[in-house]
Amino acid sequence: MSEPDLTLHGLRLSGHSHRVELFLTLLGLPYRFIAVAGPDQPEAADLRRLNPLGQIPVLTDGPAVIADSNAILVYLAARYAPDSGWMPGDPLAAAQVQRWLSIAAGEVRYGPALARLMVVFGAPADRAAVHATAARILTFMDGHLADRPYLAADRATLADIACYSYVAHAPEGGVSLAPYPAVQAWLARVEALPGFLPMPASPIPEQL
User: Fold this and answer.
1) Any residues with CB less than 8 A from the CB of 95 and at least 6 apart, and which?
2) What is the DSSP letter of 169?
3) Where would a tag sit more exposed on the chain, N or C end, judged by fewer CB atoms within 10 A?
4) Of residues 140, 118, 146, 135, the one with CA closest to residue 178
5) Which stretches of the chain drop beneath a pLDDT of 70?
6) How far apart are alpha carbons 108 and 154 in whole angstroms?
7) Residue 94: helix, strand or coil by DSSP?
8) SS3 156
9) Cβ of 146: how many Cβ atoms within 10 Å?
10) Strand locations in 62-161, DSSP E?
């Protein structure tokens, strides 16, 4: 296999970017990080050339360009860790991982992630609806994790990497994790993985 030539375009306060950078460090892959801070930055023009939607993160691997954080996770697992179990080969196990990738892009995105986006970045949204979505998915996750160590298997998979960042930082959006002990235990297990990279913290609002 040729030496990787990986560049990640993203924002370190973005959970979407963090899940990719976290997986890169868990795999021990060398990479460059190009921060895309705003639409007027030169890096933003480069980003739009790579992804016309202008969304982060984007990963380049030599001439290959991969957009969307979950797609990048799948690419990295298949390209650099095909037999590691991060994305299982068994059809049923793979389907379980894919289910959580969809949850990460759905309920987690519009619950804990959007609550944090409202506080940290001032995004407009209906707070009550967002917090209701967060409570619903965190309650579901807590029950799911009550008798298993990880989301989709008995070891960490892409499911855990995709969901970790925004759940771990939910308190930054005013969403308390205190009612969810199984979720807290799962977060600690992810954080204990060799090569774990934390996401930069933002202030937690006084009122949770």
Assistant:
1) none
2) T
3) N
4) 135
5) 1-2, 38-44, 207-208
6) 22
7) helix
8) coil
9) 11
10) 64-67
